[in-house]
Amino acid sequence: MDWLNIVFTLLMLVLLQAVLGFDNLLYISLESKRAPEDKQAAVRKIGIGMAVVLRIVLLFVLTKLISLFVEPFLTIPEGGWFSGSFNVESVIVLAGGVFIIYTATKEIFHMIGTHDLEHAGDKKPKSAGQVIFWIVLMNLVFSFDSILSAMALTDNFWVMAAAIVIGGVLMIVLADSISKFLSKNRLYEVLGLFILFIVGIMLLSEGAHKAHLHLFGHEVTAMSKATFYFVIAVLVLIDIVQGKYQKKLLARAA
Q1: Cα dist from 94 to 47, 82, 162, 166, 193, whole Å
Q2: Maximum C-alpha span of the chain
Q3: Which of 36-40, 98-102, 114-118, 184-188 has the weakest average pLDDT?
Q4: Is the pLDDT assigned to residue 233 strictly greater than 70?
Q5: Where are the alpha helices (DSSP H) in 21-39?
């Protein structure tokens, strides 16, 4: 019976990793395109592999020293227009949200401002080492919610570690597929960047919620995953309908 429980818990944790890892997967796919073309696949594999190892290290640290991450180190009392209680986890998630929004906004304006339509989606190239660094760093930012959720399901370290490894293998496979799809369908990069922008907003709301942030007397609540996926579904639907309608207009004009 114990083994059945372990297997069931492992399956639940892998599913949790998949559901919570979509936003991370999208970032990896877009960021890896900034590496030299012949190294992009290797960059994704190395970046995710290193991130998996560090996730396991972070899991070990959280299980032993979770109080250091969840205990507030800065408290702004209520009474003004801004109040909150910040801990290490909330600050890391907030910083990740700001960085994601900045990255997505910068690339969107780059696409709008470029005069070379053939290379409109091309981003400023980075070295393979720089791309791996950012993939690993942002992977750790995204990992907090999945690790803490996993800790709520089980206290077995090895089951959680196995789920992280399996999730990492799935991410490597899916990241390659998504990157290939974006390379063949350049217009969907715009959709991907706007989804990434929403990911940044979700991280900001999540970090603010963890910090018990109040603005003008109103508590900031976290965007739920259900809301996140609903917004993505609407964006994808709009993009599909608009694309089909545009083809009809072009055919009529021709």
Answers
A1: 22, 16, 28, 27, 19
A2: 68
A3: 114-118
A4: yes
A5: 22-32
What angle in degrees, to the nearest 10, is found between the helix axes of 40-70 and 22-32?
A: 140
Instruction: State the Cα–Cα distance between residues 198 and 193, nearest whole angstrom.
Output: 9
Give the per-residue pLDDT at 124. Answer: 60
Residue 78 sits at φ, ψ, to 5 deg, of: -70, 160
User: Which residue's entry shows tokens 């059945």?
Assistant: 4
Burial of 238 (0-12, 13-18, 19+ CB in 10 A): exposed
Kind of pairing between the strands at 214-215 and 82-86: antiparallel
Q: Is 218 helix (H, G, I), strand (E, B) or coil?
A: strand
Residue 229 CA to residue 64 CA, distance in Å, equals 33
Question: Which residues does residue 215 pair with via DSSP β-bridges, in sequence order?
Answer: 82, 218
